[in-house]
Amino acid sequence: MLDTDILITGAGSAGLTLALLLAKNSPDLQITVLEQGPAPQAGAVSLSRVSALNLASQRVLDSLGVWQLLNAKPAYQQMQVWEADSFARIEFATSDLGALDVQSGSSSPALGWIVDNEELRCCLYQRAQQYPNIQWKFDARIQQISASERQNLLTLADGSAYISKLLVGADGANSLVREQLKMPLAFWDYDHHGLVAVVRTSAPHQATARQVFLPTGPLALLPLADPHLVSIVWSVAPERAAELIALPAEQFNQALTAASQSVLGVLSVQTERRSYPLKMRYASQWVKHNAVLVADAAHTIHPLAGQGMNLGLMDVCALAELIVQNISTGRTCNEQRMLRQYERWRKAEAQQMIALMEAFKRGFMLQHPLAKLVRAVGMAATNQLAPVKRQLLAAALGNQGDLPAVARPGVISL
């Protein structure tokens, strides 16, 4: 039976970032990471699933020495959002940022970066292996989890067992920690699937992230390192997603080019097309005894604003900050007051983001002519108001809000 201070289930980006933050700032902590799959293996970047990282997330990864390890992290300097069948449109550029963040770690200003999820995970694991106070267990099939006021007991299918002071569920949207500890979950189905693929464009993307709102759902075009490659996230009804995946490549290319309004010319799919269901999940309880949820185990949101990864990374930064503060003052890593403080802090941020995404999605799904007119006028007016645009950007890019210390900017100008 292995006894550890903090047991993290899930070696995704959130779980690995938490392990790194704790190991770096509290070297006496004993940390164990369990992962049901194999260890991350460095290799060619597939770009099968990518995430948009904002400035706050970039600062965190830079502080951990991970940012420098990423090979594929193309920046985007502009964003364009518009509605397909109205004059609603808004654009953002680095010139809207005001003063540059002096701690950005980048030689040029950017609104964000596109990273390959698996490459990020590999780089986090590579860095975390340098800390002897992190222990690893891969291909770990969890059989039973119990949490009490004193400790947590977790047993695996191979008969091994782990006791921990604090159990962290970083095991994704279908969290076994959340399920076995019966932590209540609210959710609704967006009735959409996200279709993802890498696409070649005939016109250069010019380091611009684009999103067009169609009557059937949004289509995002995320710029990659190659000036003629983008990663798409196309939100459509499940049956339409199945149809699009089944189409011959030529017909799919025609449908995608039409949906994008040929903004990047003729589009040509380069990789396998995949889709996944889009659901909002929100755990109403994030702490139970000495167990706590983070990132996708606690919440998932619609990908239309690309904030899912950023929200999860801020969760683990907040939890790590509070744990380190507690330990530095002679308290424990599982003190209930501290865990409740984390829950209140990050619940408020998650609730705000969920509400914003839902309002955004529902607002654009309204197809009444008056609703379209109001949207178009509002977006056009916002596009002309520099102070308002800077406020919107500051919130989206991680330069505003109740951020963990490691994610805060050096300079904010609004």
From TrEMBL:
A matching Pfam family: FAD_binding_3
A GO MF term: monooxygenase activity
Listed cofactors: FAD
Gene3D superfamilies, per the entry: FAD/NAD(P)-binding domain (3.50.50.60)
Top-rank taxon: Bacteria
PROSITE patterns: UBIH (PS01304)
Protein family (similarity comment): Belongs to the UbiH/COQ6 family.
Protein's name according to its UniProt entry: FAD-dependent monooxygenase
Organism: Rheinheimera tilapiae
